[in-house]
Design a protein that fits this description.
By secondary structure, this protein is mainly α. It is built from five helices and no strands. Helix content is about 80%, strand content about 0%.
Amino acid sequence: MMKLITPYGRNIALMMLLLGLAGCQAKKPQAIAKLQAEETLAASSGDGGQMALCFKQLEALKVMQSARYPSLLAEFNQLMAGAAKYGSVRKTIGPLNQDTGDAFFRFRANMICSKIDSALLSALIEQDGSTS
């Protein structure tokens, strides 16, 4: 049986869906930059599912704790913008620099996703009113 969509292609498609859900009405150059960011983060993490979950949790945080949402959204967007810039040159740099750049963006993605996860968990606990 032949696979129609590779895991890499699935990650790209998933990130495209997320950007569409975010209400992104970008011009063509911005759309290309976003696609490069998605490809870069998917390539560096090896798992686009993490970024999909991270984005879903960010959107949930918007509902649960709207005061914290803007700063985390700005940080998430900054990560995506940086990944887009890196993605535009990634194929033109050497393997050692690719490994370093990939690790850097994997680290930054893990950090922002951890912050979002922690903020969402805190908001859920506060919602219940049973902070200990």
